Amino acid sequence: MLSGMDLDSTTRVIDDTLRLSKCVLIVRLYLEDDDAINAEAFINEASFLVSNSQHEVLNLQYKVCYARILDLKRKFLDAALRYYDISQVEKRQIGDELIDEEALEQALSAAVTTYKHIFTVVAVETNCSNGDIVIAQSRVGTLPSGISSFSMEITNACARGCSISNLHLKCSMFASAVLVNPKIFKHQDVDDCLVNGGSPLTAGFTISFKYANSFQYPLSLASATCD
Known about the structure:
Pfam families: PSMD12-CSN4_N, TPD1_C. With 227 residues, the protein is α+β, with helices and mostly antiparallel strands. 34% of the residues lie in helices and 24% in strands.
């Protein structure tokens, strides 16, 4: 069975593109049975490979699988945004492979359908704005292992004195080679990190920590509540 293959075997060298293709294939097979739990395990592995992948077809297949998993996990807003992003692909041919127009139309249709499934999405309320959450990152050094170290600061810059709680960031498959205090920053799920344990950040307060990874994670605001 494909899912039983050891893609990290030390007895043989497996090209990253081959590893990515196997992961994506396994994910697609699990998704045929709407099995998001097992599919997520392999999409997580694929996420570490896709950032360096130049194989556009595989990258597109990864995005489709990722959106489908979010859909099955009822993360409807994130899924809708990713379906829409897929539908906007401009290329109609990648290498020797044609992009099916019908597949792009299906992705756009999925975006609309998924968006309609949203019953409640916690959003930043009107007395706050997205700009009140300031996210700053910088590379601060290198670990002895050669992995880069990054400094992260998340600040409530609300000039109206509002506190912000239940702060979630879009964080992809966030992982760190050094321990990050989960009370400060916790990777909860696919593309979902909780800041400060959900407790309020008062105006002017900054959460700071360091993490280590081979690349800097693109982080952005997902949702928050004004108190």
